[in-house]
Design brief:
This protein has 269 residues and is of the alpha/beta class. It has two domains: 9-147, serine acetyltransferase, domain 1, CATH 1.10.3130.10; 153-269, UDP N-Acetylglucosamine Acyltransferase, domain 1. Helices cover 42% and strands 14% of the residues. A six-stranded mixed beta sheet has the order 3-6-9-12-14-15. It has a five-stranded parallel beta sheet with strand order 1-4-7-10-13. Helix 2 (13-28) packs antiparallel against helix 3 and helix 8 runs antiparallel to helix 9. The chain is globular, with a radius of gyration of 19 Å. The protein starts with 7 loop residues before the first helix and ends in a 9-residue tail after the last helix.
């Protein structure tokens, strides 16, 4: 009896949906056929498509697309968490960004998603001791996407960075799972100190546009940081902080602020 193989949709529903949307996009806009075929439909897995996009976007006169593709393929083959994190990130963007209506949009058009996936390759290189290559990836991500994430930083999965312009995440920063942040967020240090000097962001945190979180401090899970705030001290769990410097102004207003993305606050700062 011939072996019955499971359908692709049963094995990888995220990739199956991306492919279905890609076929529909080509039918709707044939002029994008070359882009969509080369970036998505030509590949047999999400990991292969991610590696292709990584190499295409970061290639330059200093490093060829072929070499970058080999690096990315090696990373994905070695660490299955890279692809799983990407799937969680796609879902996060789709569920939280009202401008995202299809799974393929982050893969093709959203620089926040693409920058995070490239950072993940750089972080893998860092963990393998290939630090100069990791720094090169960091440099190119900053040049191409305007997002500067140190390859030693630890970033969880289910990450949504909306617009993503001028994001900075420092070397010893930790970002938990299911975190959402908007443009111009900085997770930075407070000076020239060495060692563990950057913020630790808990799961489910929402960080508003332009917020600066500085120093080796902890932001508790499911908290909210209002846009434009400067956070210099620990933030308790399930709390909203706002202002310069930021102060606690109440609870987080919901159980999962990073998912609801509610940025309205009540009360006086």
């Amino acid at each position: 009896m011939a072996e019955i193989k499971p359908k692709v949709s049963a094995v990888d529903p995220v990739w199956q949906r991306v492919r279905e949307e890609a076929f529909e996009a080509v039918r709707a806009e044939p002029l994008l056929g070359g882009l969509i075929h080369s970036s998505l439909l030509h590949h047999n897995s999400l990991e292969r498509a991610l590696a292709y996009r990584f190499s295409l976007k970061l290639a330059s006169g200093e490093m060829s697309e072929q070499i970058l593709r080999e690096i990315a393929d090696e990373a994905h083959e070695d660490d299955g968490e890279l692809g799983q994190s990407a799937r969680a990130d796609i879902m996060a963007v789709y569920e939280r960004d009202p401008a995202c209506h299809r799974f393929l949009q982050p893969l093709l058009y959203f620089k926040g998603f693409q920058a995070v996936q490239a950072y993940r390759i750089g972080h893998w290189l860092w963990g393998k001791g290939r630090k100069d290559l990791a720094y090169f990836v960091q440099m190119r991500v900053s040049e191409v996407f305007g997002v500067d994430i140190h390859p030693a930083a630890r970033v969880g999965k289910g990450i949504m960075i909306d617009h993503a312009h001028s994001i900075v995440i420092g070397e010893t920063a930790v970002v938990g799972d299911n975190v959402s942040m908007l443009h111009s967020v900085t997770l930075g240090g407070t000076g020239k100190e060495d060692g563990d000097r950057h913020p630790k962001i808990g799961n489910g945190v929402m960080i508003g546009a332009g917020a600066k979180v500085l120093g080796n401090i902890t932001v508790g899970y499911c908290s909210r940081i209002a846009a434009g705030s400067v956070v210099l001290h620990d933030v308790p769990h399930n709390t909203t902080v706002a202002g310069v410097p930021a102060k606690v102004i109440g609870d987080s207003g919901c159980s999962h602020p990073s998912i609801t993305m509610d940025q309205l606050i009540s009360g006086e700062i």
